């Protein structure tokens, strides 16, 4: 159905690059970015939003593509600036009563701290005195001016931010104070002069005094910040497209640094860490917004605002309720109080932890704000996977050394590192690390990604570290004030004097905020225990979480079309998979049954040079294989079990050619060469392949070694017959691997059907075994219509299909050049992690369609690891497959995503 448009909703114009806050709405995020769209929405709701306008993402795209702003942009900005000046009754940067504005980024998807913001645009040597007179506060004016030079110098002019920080620290030390607010007007006036000198020395030009030039340069800097290294890294991490661009919001300034009756804060309508309802957030008196997010001063809890300014607190609580009801979700709000007047600076759907996501989704259903289908869309498989990670064993012996704010849950253990470079370096060497900082900033993103968890001594739940960590699902403890962090000396000191040096192991608990020295043991997650069948295991709050997971999983199972099977090769894995909700086994790799002591039997089979020796080797293997299958069929009784016949290349069952050659050479030198080793070396040389993954394996092996596949089919059939005669319900499916042409399948099928018939006759049963193939070669996908003539089912082996389509050897390329490909943007994500929809995906779609055109009842599944990848599951749903198969641990994730795919598809169909 065509999508209808609300006549009351402003529609975007193809030629319009600037929108007043009164013109937009929350539906225009593509054009106005998330921040601009939501500022417009709050304006439309009648909330106290400072007037302003938004420059669109389209303008940014033109700038990024051409290197210059659209020709019409300057005139549009001038028009909206004139309107803003008339509304405010003052002009930008005028000397006696200056209008000041902020210039802030705002992409469609939240990228906290990754792009640039500049506050107090319009201040200059000429207007700072006018601002002081207007506010009746000289200190405030000079504080605002030094902030402008500092932010502008760093973000617009490219000056090293450390130079400003060092000058600020020197000023505080000279004054004998610890925090910025203890510097007086004279101190700040001196600091402004120092900051201007830094700008002139580092850039070769004076700090710009013309207000419009400041604004235009700041807008351009925000556009440029879309393509900074940190922004691109964050987008790759969060899988945000790189071609969206950012909007720019120009907003009239309101000031939280006007004294004790002013301040700034961040609020959440629910706790983003737990999902519980209440008053959550941070407030900082006499400060501007960047002070809260940067974590450079420790805040007070939002609840304290009730005692500081009850009128503003009450109004804020009412607005928070309005916004949550309007957005029907957890809202993240930025606000400023200017001399007792509350102003709303931003709202967005807040980032939350995995546990909070599940709790909030079910809470909103109970409140009647959303239905179950929407609740299912509010969570995802990545969050569910996070909830399945182990937690600290609180009953184990441990030494707590400090406690901070529980900013993002989880149990993280690693070696202490004190800068991002070391975190990345050690992580690449296989070390698990905890990144410890006084506070993080956007430049720490690399280290935050590499670390197991983040610990800061400053900041709260709304600091940069907390917000980014929650978004990435990283464990984080913030504001551990009692721990003294010295990044230059690379150490952390406890109040008792214990020193943690770089390399010492620490453990942080993002659920309690506790910090431990040494490694704390972990216990299974209560969510895993729920999937294992123990519903109410764990702490009291875990019970609430488990119930939320249970409700959403139950709905996902009701609506999903895709069935979910397991990749399992033994009864133990099969049993666990079934408890996790598997609806059968989609891939049993029989080669895993030939390891250990059986490897020698396979070696004898491969090296047999006469029928007698070969039959003897097969006779040894048959009962062992049969016993394996009996256990599997018992574990999965009543559910399908897809058994893949032997697939790996021969070299995996033979001695290493180099080791064997050395052994024989040494024996010959000693003149005591073993005849068997000489014969073995000759055979290994004969069978040696330069590229064994493209050599004698899969169906080729079954055709070249007489009796091999027949033995496996007989073992499957006899196990099924015995299980059936024992009143069981075995549902075996036999899968022939690496087929490239229908003729291969026809030959193996004919042999298999003959063996099955013999077993049925011998045991007096009808087995109804099905025979199918893996589609893992491009030729198989391209000739799927022919292959379907001899196949009861297809199972797409997307690991090998990805290798053969791309020409990649998975074992080699991921370690060699994938990192460079990801950094250069060639890949958004590894094609082995998420299916390549354009290449591999096209073959899957075409093969599925061609196979079903030949055989409409053809069963279609996938058994590569893509079967457990959330994004790939959605693709397989769209492609019309019947099931996905994945490792047991990923089954709940696949179930959830299959439900989400179905609900999303149904929602699209109804629009």
TrEMBL record:
The keyword Isomerase does not apply. NCBIfam families: PRK05878.1, pyru_phos_dikin. Residues 431-513 form the PEP-utilising enzyme mobile domain. It comes from the Bacteria. GO terms for molecular function: ATP binding; kinase activity; metal ion binding; pyruvate, phosphate dikinase activity. Residues 547-898 form the PEP-utilising enzyme C-terminal domain. Residues 73-298, 306-355 form the Pyruvate phosphate dikinase AMP/ATP-binding domain. The active site is at residues 464, 863. Its cofactor is Mg(2+). The keyword Cytoplasm does not apply. Its EC number is 2.7.9.1. It comes from Streptomyces tubercidicus. Keywords: ATP-binding, Kinase, Magnesium, Metal-binding, Nucleotide-binding, Pyruvate, Transferase. Mg(2+) binds at residues 776, 800. It catalyses: pyruvate + phosphate + ATP = phosphoenolpyruvate + AMP + diphosphate + H(+). This is Pyruvate, phosphate dikinase. Belongs to the PEP-utilizing enzyme family. PROSITE patterns: PEP_ENZYMES_PHOS_SITE (PS00370). It is an enzyme of class 2 (transferase). Substrate binds at residues 589, 644, 776, 797-800.
């Amino acid at each position: 159905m065509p999508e209808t448009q609300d006549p009351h909703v402003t529609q975007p114009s193809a030629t319009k690059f600037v929108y007043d806050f009164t013109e937009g709405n929350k539906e225009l995020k593509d054009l106005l970015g998330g921040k601009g769209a939501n500022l417009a929405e709050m304006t439309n709701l009648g909330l106290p939003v400072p007037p302003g306008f938004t420059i669109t993402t389209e303008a940014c795209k033109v700038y990024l593509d051409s290197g210059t702003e659209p020709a019409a942009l300057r005139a549009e900005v001038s028009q909206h600036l004139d309107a803003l000046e008339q509304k405010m009754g003052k002009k930008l940067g005028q000397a006696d009563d200056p209008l000041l504005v902020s210039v802030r980024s705002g992409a469609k998807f939240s990228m906290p701290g990754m792009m640039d913001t500049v506050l107090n645009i319009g201040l200059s040597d000429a207007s700072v005195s006018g601002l002081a007179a207007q506010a009746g506060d000289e200190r405030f004016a000079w504080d605002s001016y030094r902030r402008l030079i500092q932010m502008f110098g760093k973000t617009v002019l490219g000056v090293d931010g450390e130079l400003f920080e060092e000058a600020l620290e020197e000023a505080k030390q000279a004054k004998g104070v610890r925090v910025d607010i203890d510097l007086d007007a004279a101190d700040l006036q001196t600091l402004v002069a120092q900051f201007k000198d830094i700008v002139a020395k580092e850039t070769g030009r004076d700090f710009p005094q013309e207000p419009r030039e400041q604004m235009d340069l700041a807008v351009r800097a925000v556009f440029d910040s879309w393509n900074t290294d940190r922004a691109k890294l964050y987008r790759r991490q969060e899988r945000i497209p790189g071609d969206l661009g950012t909007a720019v919001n120009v907003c009239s300034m309101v000031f939280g640094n006007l004294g004790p009756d002013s301040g700034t804060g961040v609020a959440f309508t629910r706790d983003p860490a737990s999902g519980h309802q209440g008053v959550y957030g941070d407030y900082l008196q006499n400060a501007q917004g960047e002070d809260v997010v940067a974590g450079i001063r420790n805040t007070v809890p939002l609840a304290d605002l009730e005692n500081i300014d009850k009128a503003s607190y009450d109004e804020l609580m009412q607005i928070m309720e309005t916004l949550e009801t309007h957005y029907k979700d957890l809202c993240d709000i930025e606000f400023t109080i200017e001399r007792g007047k509350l102003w709303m600076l931003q709202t967005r759907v807040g980032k939350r932890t995995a546990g909070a996501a599940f709790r909030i989704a079910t809470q909103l259903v109970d409140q009647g704000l959303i239905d179950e289908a929407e609740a299912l869309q509010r969570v995802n498989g990545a969050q569910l996977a996070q909830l399945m990670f182990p937690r600290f064993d609180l009953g184990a012996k441990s030494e707590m050394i400090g406690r901070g704010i529980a900013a993002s849950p989880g149990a993280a253990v690693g070696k202490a590192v004190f800068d991002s470079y070391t975190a990345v370096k050690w992580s690449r060497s296989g070390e698990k690390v905890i990144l410890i900082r006084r506070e993080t900033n956007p430049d720490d993103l690399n280290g935050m990604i590499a670390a197991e968890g983040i610990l800061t001594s400053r900041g709260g739940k709304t600091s940069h570290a907390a917000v980014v960590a929650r978004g990435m699902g990283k464990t984080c403890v913030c504001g551990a004030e009692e721990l003294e962090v010295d990044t230059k000396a690379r150490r952390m000191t406890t109040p008792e004097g214990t020193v943690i040096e770089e390399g010492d192991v620490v453990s942080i608990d993002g659920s309690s905020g506790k910090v431990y020295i040494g490694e704390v043991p972990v216990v299974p997650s209560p969510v895993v225990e729920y999937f294992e069948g123990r519903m109410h295991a764990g702490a009291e709050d875990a019970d609430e979480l488990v119930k939320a997971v249970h409700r959403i999983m139950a709905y996902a199972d009701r609506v999903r079309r895709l069935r979910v099977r397991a990749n399992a090769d033994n009864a133990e894995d099969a049993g666990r998979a079934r408890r996790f909700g598997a609806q059968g086994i989609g891939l049993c790799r029989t080669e895993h049954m030939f390891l250990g002591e059986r490897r020698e039997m396979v070696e004898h089979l491969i090296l047999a040079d006469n029928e007698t020796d070969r039959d003897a080797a097969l006779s040894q293997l048959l009962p062992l294989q049969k016993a394996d299958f009996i256990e599997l069929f018992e574990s999965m009784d009543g559910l399908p079990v897809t058994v893949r016949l032997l697939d790996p290349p021969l070299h995996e069952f033979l001695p290493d050619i180099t080791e064997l050659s050395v052994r024989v050479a040494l024996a010959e030198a000693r003149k005591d060469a073993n005849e068997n080793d000489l014969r073995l070396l000759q055979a290994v040389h004969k069978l040696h392949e330069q590229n064994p993954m493209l050599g004698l394996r899969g169906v080729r092996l079954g055709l070249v070694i007489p009796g091999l596949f027949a033995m496996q089919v007989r073992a499957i059939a006899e196990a099924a017959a015995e299980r059936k005669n024992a009143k069981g319900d075995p549902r075996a499916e036999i899968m022939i691997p690496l087929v490239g042409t229908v003729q291969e399948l026809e030959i193996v099928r004919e042999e298999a059907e003959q063996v099955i018939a013999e077993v049925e006759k011998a045991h007096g049963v009808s087995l109804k075994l099905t025979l199918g193939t893996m589609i893992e070669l491009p030729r198989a996908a391209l000739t799927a219509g022919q292959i379907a003539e001899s196949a009861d089912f297809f199972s797409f082996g997307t690991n090998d299909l990805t290798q053969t389509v791309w020409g990649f050897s998975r074992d080699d390329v991921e370690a060699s050049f994938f990192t460079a490909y990801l950094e250069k943007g060639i890949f958004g994500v590894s094609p082995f992690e998420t299916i390549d929809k354009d290449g591999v995906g096209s073959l899957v779609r075409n093969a599925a369609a061609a196979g079903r055109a030949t055989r409409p009842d053809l069963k279609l599944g996938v058994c590569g690891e893509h079967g457990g990848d959330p994004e790939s599951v959605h693709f397989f749903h769209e492609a019309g497959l019947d099931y996905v198969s994945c490792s047991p641990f990923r089954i709940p994730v696949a179930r959830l995503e299959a439900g989400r795919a179905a609900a999303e598809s149904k929602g699209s169909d109804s629009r």
